[in-house]
Target: Mitochondrial protein
Amino acid sequence: MASSMTVSRGETRYSYRLNHLVQKDIGKPIDAMKHFNAKVTDGRIPIVLTPSYPTLITLFMKVPSGLWVLKQKWNAHAGMMDPGLKMFWPAWNRVSHIVTKQAVTYSNPVRGCPTSDNVMVDIDISISFQIGPTEDDAYTFVYALGAHRFDELLYSLTEEAIRGLVHSVSNVQVTE
Model:
């Protein structure tokens, strides 16, 4: 399996990664922006948040703006929620997922890339992406792809593309 491949000094292939795109559990939906905007110290970038289940009835619930907020009724998708204050929110309704609309910067170092003349180089690449632009895109992202699979896909595709590009050029061209 690729994740157990040894690079050097007992490190796995993925241990030197700077960023991981994750889905994170939170308490209340109103805290979503705090989690999306928090400084990342451990490399885990939240792109999807899942609020905790509501109590029997929530008197007042605030839905944040500037985010994709997916709603469920009886645990089935029931569309997107508009931002604002919701009063008397029964437990069979819930915010299932909150997805950021902000641009996210993802860093992926590619270590030990051989050039066409067999010189090993290290490449650092940063990619900015955004989930959307429609509600259907956010829904498809959450239920068909998800944060973890997107993280693995983005990591694998960028590493493979960079390795292929670097292998096709000489050391002199890479350093220019």
Remarks:
- DSSP finds three helices and nine strands in the chain.
- The radius of gyration is 20 Å.
